[in-house]
Please model this.
Amino acid sequence: MTEELFRADAYLTTCQAKVIALVDNGIQLDRTIFYPTGGGQPGDTGSLTTADGRVISIVDTQKRETGIVHIPAEGSPSLNIGDEVTARIDWERRYRHMRMHTALHLLCAVVKGGVTGGQVGESKSRLDFDIPGEKPDKETLTARLNELVQGNHAVQPRWVSDEELEANPSLVRTMSVKPPTGQGQVRLLEIECVDLQPCGGTHVRATGEIGQLLVSKIESKGKQNRRIVVSLVDP
Model:
């Protein structure tokens, strides 16, 4: 199994690792900082560099039955099991995903309704909510989100037992996807005084890191389904 270093510290940008398997045009390492696609967040990109200078460009990271698989760009140098590599993520891209993913948790906190879908992007992201009645107001949501950003609330993971999660079903906001259980513990993300729900993604340490936000679009995607798009407003 691969040690998932990004779970403990999302700010790691490099690590030393060893190739433990080569499967399905992918590379498995004994440890990694690469986040695999999941929870609406794209998999990391970056590179693996060997001691003799070979550089393997990683264009995607996926979670498969065999574990986390790093997908090399076509034509990349080959690796062998046992090779030692320096793993390096595209930090700018990852950090934007961290900011956006945390922003979606703020959106969950200000919109009352079950989440029916979502997607994290580098500059804009979306959540779909089951909301009866009129669409929410873009300006009102934008103002509330930026108030929470400016509050610089602490963001940190917490763990609860499967039994604790089952006893508190209101923690789960997603309607179609349930958090994985059966391992004894479930990872939650806590935004202090704002939000608490299961999540395995990567996030910033405080909401102030997100930067200014804009609710750029609210669409009706069915009788009660409302798609809310949030964008980063970068200087």
Q: What stands out?
A: The radius of gyration is 19 Å. The first helix runs from residue 5 to 8. The helical segments are 5-8, 91-110, 138-150, 162-167.
